[in-house]
Amino acid sequence: LKGLLVVDWSVFWAGAYLGMMLHDLGAQVVKVESPYNWDPMRTILDVNPGARGAQQALPPEERCNLNQHFNEWNRGKLSLAVALEREEGRRVLLDLLARADIFIENHRPHVKEKLGIAYEDVRKVKPDIVYLSISGFGQDGPERDALALGSPVELASGLFSLNGYHGQATPAKTGFSYADPVSALVALGAILLALRQRRRTGKGRFIDIAMRDALSFGIGSAFVDWALNGRERPRLGNRHPSYAPQGVYRAYGADEWIAISVRNDQEWQALVRLMGNPDWATDPELATVEGRRRHHDLIDQHLERWTSQHCARALEAALQEAGVPAGAVLDYRQLRFDPQLNARGMTQEVQHPLFGTEVRTRSLWQRGPCSQPIERPAPCFGQHNRYVLREILGYSEQDIQRLEEQGIIASSIHPSPQHD
Q: Does this model's pTM top 0.70?
């Protein structure tokens, strides 16, 4: 995508991740925010209470450039801070969009309509633009303006209904906001197809991605089973509807765990041999998957007595060598020093002008010996105002100074209660 310009007017995760992937594919990406309505991810509760672990929390004006959630998903972008709520700020954005190839946004539909930067407005200044909107429930329908973060979308998609502890009625969150990265990847594919079509026809495209739609594929088999057979799928926790045993078992050491999944009788026999053929495991009742499903609780108790005597990594190696699917449960500390991930160049240390050394994940498509390094960290707020206005838009120094004096562009946020 080298040579293409992307304008990223998005908040939180889905749009930010999409913009970063477009950058990784070669596009120049300008992150647009308003000094009065910035990306809340800049100032949301961070993993650290202050800069470099300071004990006193920082005010939003200082914290906005240090948040590690924002910095992870916005690396490589340029930052333009312009007051979109004011007519001249809107004209600056439209000037930028007139030169852009792709516009991505993930606000509720009425927001862009109120600001006058909906698709119909933008294509008047850039007829062949690829305009992509990510929202929780889509651009039409009765719930088009419903508030939608990752968790509510998961709930509406049906994933909550399938997730929860075995034998308990209460549904549970997945523990990870799948709606954001899943919808971003779906949106990426749609953009690439739209660019291909534009190359052939010269026409732009409006793309409507609903996070709920993108996520509902996850309940496909359960939905079909209910529609065809009238069966409701029970919540299984870490278990599987067919494999047995399957679960996460305590290993030797503090907070060490091993995941094991036995798919068939051959893998069960391999597991039994590895455990030393204990008497309980040679019971003929456990020789078939049906029997093992019936006695899953008993198997779990015996299996964890065995796994708790061994280190998770050693178990992983031994089980995989025996042909049993298994993996140690790794946390972020272990991932940082994982030899496989490091061999593939997953992370890189970069220098942030305010935070200092940060560890960032690299491109999904540019790892290995031919990978490109991360050129720059996530931008500070309004860091590239002058570059964007002068080099991309061709504004004069007098124009830029006037915009600064009038508060149309800024290099700091103006906190309001809803953002802090």
A: yes
